[in-house]
Design brief:
single chain; 252 residues; mainly alpha; 13 helices; 2 strands
Length: 252
């Protein structure tokens, strides 16, 4: 039953429909009984409980993240993702000191055997998701500091970790790292590399609005006006149900 809401969250996210996506994310988290999440064999339900945090990051709901109650300590995977979401919120708010504190807390969970042994639906270790979140947060923090070389290194690692995940629907990691990576490459003035990253993203998820918007920007920056215009048309069609306006391929 929660799986249906999980899919609604994922598909509405691809359309930029934040209202539907966030509502579905909250319902995903509310359907599994809380008491079940610590029962042997059912720990994977913790992933459903983390979906609102992922949704809030996607759509830039920073105040909602900072107001989100800390999960129980006996559920370290969700606690780690809570620190990740908080780090992204502080980066967005330009509070880099608190962002660093949250990232350090997040990184302390990278060696957790409990998290590593938690398999999401029996396929992917939650430890890989923590690894991805660490690299994305570090990369975005370095980008905010204009340390683009370091930021790019972190996002390359995030993409590699994401690529190591086994296929699942919806994807186990909530948001293609290439959409963070491409945005940072554009900020760094590496427009040709950004174009390549967005084309890879669109090859994996054809005609998704986030990737199309990023590709449009990368093409414009290179003076490829005809291709940029064609891409913008594709973006507008993909984004027709959206309730948010993009300035980048990720909200930050």
């Amino acid at each position: 039953y929660p799986h249906n809401y999980h899919f609604l969250w994922a598909t509405a996210t691809l359309e930029g429909d934040s209202k539907t996506a966030i509502d579905a994310a909250l319902k995903t988290s509310q359907k599994p009984p809380d008491s079940m999440m610590s029962v042997c064999g059912y720990e994977t339900l913790q992933h459903f409980a983390a979906i609102p945090l992922y949704a809030f990051v996607t759509f830039g709901k920073w105040d909602e993240i900072l107001e989100f109650e800390k999960p129980k300590d006996d559920r370290p995977y969700i606690v780690a993702i809570w620190h990740y979401a908080r780090s992204m919120a502080y980066i967005a708010k330009n509070n880099l000191t608190d962002a660093e504190v949250e990232i350090v807390n997040l990184e302390s969970y990278r060696e957790s055997e409990t998290i590593d042994s938690l398999l999401i639906w029996g396929f992917n270790s939650a430890g890989i998701l923590v690894d991805i979140s660490c690299e994305v947060a570090r990369g975005e923090l370095e980008a905010k500091k204009k340390n683009y070389s370091a930021a790019i290194d972190h996002l390359k690692k995030a993409v590699e970790y994401e690529y190591s995940l086994q296929y699942d629907e919806p994807p186990t990691w909530f948001y293609p790292c290439r959409q963070n990576f491409g945005a940072i490459l554009i900020e760094a003035g590496k427009y040709q590399e950004a174009e390549k990253i967005y084309r890879e993203n669109l090859n994996e998820i054809p005609d998704n609005g986030w990737g199309l918007f990023g590709l449009h920007l990368a093409l414009l920056k290179q003076g490829k006006t005809k291709e940029a215009a064609e891409t913008k048309e594709r973006f507008e069609k993909a984004w027709k149900y959206a309730d948010i306006k993009l300035t980048s391929s990720r909200v930050l």
